[in-house]
Design brief:
The protein is mainly α. Helix content is about 75%, strand content about 0%. The longest helix has about 30 residues.
Length: about 350
């Protein structure tokens, strides 16, 4: 799919995603209306308000220059949300067009890219938001980590609408194009590539997320002043999960809980196994973007599994599902990029070796 044909679908999807996030932010104010208590209980309303507030223009405090800083932060947030989604979706749609059996993969990739774009937008706008609170000079990095972690859940649900619209418009724009057959990728090279990329993701999910290692990451950077406690920020960008020994729970429950981590690695491996054949050209940027989307999809699958296994979900209600989705996206972005690069390097090395063996 050419960039000229892809630009209209991604603009439509980016505009819809941005409008949905604007609407979600505006809904935070509606939760304070008198009749909202007839729809949500107090606990659910408070939880929803916390989830929606990162995208709300009404959460302004302090007045004066602080109000201006907050509005600037939100303007930057929504503009960059649109730009980040368009940039990523344009790359994905260019190399993964929704034709010839690729439509489900394109739809899933665009859906996973929505929380990634939201996380990047929240990160870029975070300095203005922190300054608008009036105490931006106090523990900047922990504040930054908290802001970054707050923007993902809503985008997961907004992406459920933005991704199908993007795909539908792309199908309409690309209806005259000839079908694109899948690329012929040697099975062994594809498996080696997927295994290498999955090993990179496992480094974060298993090694860095292990309780003692995660504690060392978070606490081994003591400091005072403006840039104190960088461990909080590193934890956001390096840890995909949380591992602990089965010391406080039966072994069966611990293994059941770890099944969600196995699911993450299984989704990543399967996606990286299929991705080289689905792409029109397995370039490093496209493989990196695809690996990021695969890691996010694995996280979403594991979070849904956690939610299904949690006994308290019936008590907390459906709001707990919304709050639990979209976590770990910064680390998925970090290690997804590394996994994609490792996978494409392995794929090319394995392909060159096979060619050399055949010619010899």
């Amino acid at each position: 799919m050419t960039y000229r044909r892809a630009v209209i679908p991604v603009l439509a999807g980016g505009a819809l995603l941005t409008l949905l996030m604007l609407w979600a932010g505006a809904s935070a104010s509606a939760l304070q209306l008198q009749g909202s208590g007839n729809v949500f209980d107090i606990e659910s309303a408070n939880a929803l308000r916390v989830l929606l507030s990162p995208w709300s223009y009404s959460d302004v405090g302090g007045g004066g220059p602080y109000t201006d800083l907050y509005r600037t932060a939100m303007q930057i947030r929504f503009v960059t949300l649109f730009l980040f989604f368009v940039a990523g979706a344009l790359l994905l749609l260019r190399r993964l067009p929704p034709v010839q059996g690729r439509t489900p993969a394109t739809l899933l990739a665009l859906w996973a890219w929505a929380p990634v774009a939201a996380t990047l937008a929240v990160t870029v706008s975070a300095p203005w938001l922190i300054a608008s609170r009036g105490h931006g000079s106090f523990r900047v990095l922990p504040q930054l980590a908290g802001v970054i972690a707050s923007g993902g859940p809503v985008a997961v649900f907004a992406g459920l609408l933005a991704a199908p619209v993007t795909v539908v418009v792309a199908r309409v724009m690309d209806k005259d194009e000839e079908p694109l057959p899948r690329r012929n990728v040697p099975p062994l090279a594809a498996r080696l590539s997927a295994s290498t990329g999955t090993a990179v993701v496992a480094l974060s999910l298993v090694v860095l997320s292990y309780q003692s290692v995660a504690a060392w990451i978070q606490t081994s950077f003591p400091g005072e002043g403006l840039l104190s406690e960088p461990g909080d920020l590193l934890r956001e960008w390096l840890l995909l999960g949380a591992w602990s020994d089965p010391t406080t729970s039966p072994l069966g429950d611990w293994l059941t809980y770890r099944a969600a981590d196995v699911l993450v690695l299984a989704v990543v491996w399967w996606a990286l196994r299929l991705l080289p054949a689905l792409l029109t050209e397995a370039t490093a940027p496209t493989m990196a973007a695809g690996a990021v989307c695969a890691t996010v999809l694995g996280l979403l699958a594991s979070q849904l599994l956690h939610w299904a296994m949690d006994d308290t979900t019936a008590v907390r209600g459906p709001v707990s599902l919304l709050a639990g989705l979209g976590g770990g996206v910064p680390a998925a972005l970090t290690f997804g990029i590394l996994a994609g690069i490792a996978a494409v390097v392995t794929l090319r090395l394995a392909g060159h070796r096979k060619t050399a063996d055949s010619s010899g």
